[in-house]
Specification:
Strand content: under 5%
Helix content: over 70%
Number of strands: 2
Structural class: mainly alpha
Shape: elongated
Radius of gyration: 21 Å
Length: about 190
């Protein structure tokens, strides 16, 4: 019997990791994103409904004028993109490093860049799922509004904000604070 000089190297299957990383996002980060955005939506629309009188009657969500609904939707989308990305990329690398999980993950033949790129893609996919769910809730609560550009805009902004968050997470553990700082500077820059 001869033993091969080059043993067969078994590579990790990142497709299975993707499903678990997506599961982790949907279980841990998606509820926080949806809860915070729902609270933000309520706090945004409540003053409009409480302070509005049309012909002596208060407006309801169903009777809001179309321009107000569209502006409300844009405001929610802007908040979702920033908050959703913040929750999705928060500690994507830094938490594993801080908690020592990388010792377990990379004790197997697994490429660290591919693993974290996979995690980034799984969080982005999860964020798109949350966007569709929140769009459905918006359609039920306010009125149906299905812009064709929603998913491309969310995906592009996730890549932009999330890429910065991912980079900051590889540098130090205060990535969420740094990402908020970058977003504030970018939004307030002339």
């Amino acid at each position: 019997m001869s033993v091969s000089a080059h043993p067969v190297e078994r590579r990790a299957r990142l497709g299975r990791y993707f499903l678990w990383q997506l599961h982790d996002y949907l279980l841990h980060r998606a509820p926080a994103t949806a809860s915070v955005l729902t609270l933000f939506a309520y706090l945004t629309v409540a003053p409009i409904l409480n302070g509005s009188l049309t012909n002596g009657q208060r407006l309801s969500l169903a009777t809001l004028p179309t321009p107000i609904v569209q502006q409300f939707f844009r405001d929610l989308l802007e908040s979702f993109v920033l908050l959703g990305t913040l929750f999705a990329t928060n500690g994507i690398v830094a938490t594993d490093r801080k908690m020592g999980y990388y010792r377990f993950y990379f004790s197997k033949p697994l490429s660290a860049p591919r693993f974290y790129a996979n995690a980034f893609a799984a969080c982005g996919t999860g964020m798109l799922v949350v966007a569709l769910l929140l769009l459905g809730v918006f359609a039920l609560a306010v009125r149906p509004l299905f812009p064709a550009s929603l998913l491309p805009v969310v995906a592009a902004m996730y890549l932009a904000y999330g890429g910065v968050g991912f980079l900051l997470s590889t540098i130090w553990r205060f990535d969420w604070l740094s990402l908020v700082t970058v977003a504030v500077v970018v939004v307030n820059h002339p």
